[in-house]
Write a structure and sequence with these properties.
Elements lengths: L4 H8 L3 H8 L4 E5 L33 H7 L3 E7 L6 H20 L5 E3 L3 H9 L3 E8 L8 E4 L14 E3 L26 H12 L3 E3 L5 H10 L7 E5 L13 H9 L3 E4 L3 H4 L9 H14 L4 E3 L19 H10 L4 H20 L1
Parallel strand pairs: 1-2, 2-4, 3-4, 4-6, 6-7, 8-9, 9-10
Helix pairs in contact: 1-2, 2-11
Length: 359
């Protein structure tokens, strides 16, 4: 995967310095949902083909496809396999297995260009070969709720050979494991993780799978942090921060510090709905605002990118297509971020956490 910095600068209207720094960096997105559009029955979105005309003008879906991923310089990403929570529990497990097979087939269609990686070492090897590193993730752990013998029955979730890199405990609905942060939840009050949810965190720890605390309610967040193996990094892959914009989907300062204290990272989402504030930037600068707040509260080692591209979000106008990650670097430089800091935020911080988890 070779990207020309001069061409990138020209195509996206950024400085040569921004483009050169971007090309020289590990650029890792902690959350893309590009496996959703091909599964939507009425969309017929071919992820293998380049989409020059962005679906819906970059609103909700159509942000990425494999050609644009390779052309953008995105060196790696956690690709989410998102669970439909409205299916019966056993059916969720059956469908998940089929989706995982389709996911593996997608990777196999692009030999030498996409590689499934399970560790920081495998990421670096894929990067050296010029491939985009695919880190499989599950959005909505309730996909596994009715696996025949629980997680112990899933051979591909075993030990160091586990291809699933992270699991988001809950999504936009309540699950057997706990309560969502979404206002559409059925229960309010102080309910957090259930006992099954606590056991689920322990299972993920045993298999050294990232426990993703995006989407969970505040009590569930703290319940998970309490039972979590303290030697492993926690993570929140795609979120904004309440210190910039108070919102049910965002994390407060105490939560940011709790993740940072484990050596984990917070991926800043690209959704305007969770980031934009009155009088603030109306472009990629809003993402930099949230990154800057995390740096002020938890340090520059705690920040990462978690776009949520193709996850039904509306990004800032200058980031409506995933080819344009480099524009975020241009905004960071304009904000006065140094090159070493920017490289941490683009991927270095996550790689450090990944190495802590799996080496």
């Amino acid at each position: 995967m070779t990207v020309d910095a001069t061409g990138l600068a020209r195509a996206h209207g950024v400085s040569q310095a921004a483009a050169e720094l971007f090309v020289a960096s590990d650029v890792i997105d902690l959350h893309i949902d590009t496996f959703i559009p091909p599964r939507l029955p009425l969309v017929r979105y071919d992820v293998d083909k380049r989409h020059d005309k962005v679906l819906l003008g970059g609103r909700f879906f159509g942000h990425l496809d494999i050609p644009r991923i390779l052309e953008s310089g995105l060196s790696g990403a956690m690709w989410s396999i998102t669970t439909n929570p409205f299916r019966r529990a056993l059916r969720r497990w059956v469908v998940f297995q089929k989706n995982f097979e389709r996911f593996q087939a997608m990777i196999a269609r692009h030999p030498g260009r996409l590689e499934l990686v399970r560790s920081a070492a495998e990421y670096r090897a894929a990067r050296a070969r010029g491939a985009h590193a695919v880190m499989p993730a599950i959005q909505g752990g309730n996909a596994l709720e009715k696996a025949p013998a629980g997680l112990d029955s899933i051979d591909w979730l075993g030990g160091a050979h586990c291809p699933i890199v992270r699991v988001t405990l809950v999504h936009l609905t309540n699950a057997a494991y706990g309560i969502t942060s979404s206002p559409f939840k059925l229960w309010k009050g102080k309910r957090g993780l259930t006992e099954v949810g606590r056991d689920f965190v322990r299972h993920l720890n045993e298999r050294r799978v990232f426990v993703d605390l995006a989407h969970i309610n505040r009590q569930g967040f703290w319940d998970a942090a309490a039972v979590h193996d303290k030697s492993q990094p926690l993570i929140a892959t795609h979120t904004g921060v309440c210190g910039v914009k108070p919102h049910w989907r965002n994390l407060d300062d105490a939560q940011l510090k709790a993740i940072a204290d484990t050596g984990g990272v917070i991926g800043i989402i690209f959704s305007r709905a969770f980031l934009k504030v009155r009088g603030g930037p109306d472009d990629a600068g809003m993402i930099v605002d949230h990154m800057a707040h995390v740096i002020d509260v938890a340090g520059e080692d705690a920040v990462a990118i978690g776009s949520d591209y193709d996850g039904a979000i509306v990004p800032p106008k200058d980031l409506r297509s995933g080819e344009a990650y480099v524009r975020l670097v241009d905004k960071m430089l304009a904000r006065g971020f140094g090159e070493a800091r920017i490289q941490k935020l683009l991927g270095g911080n996550f790689l450090r956490s990944f190495e802590l988890l799996r080496g």
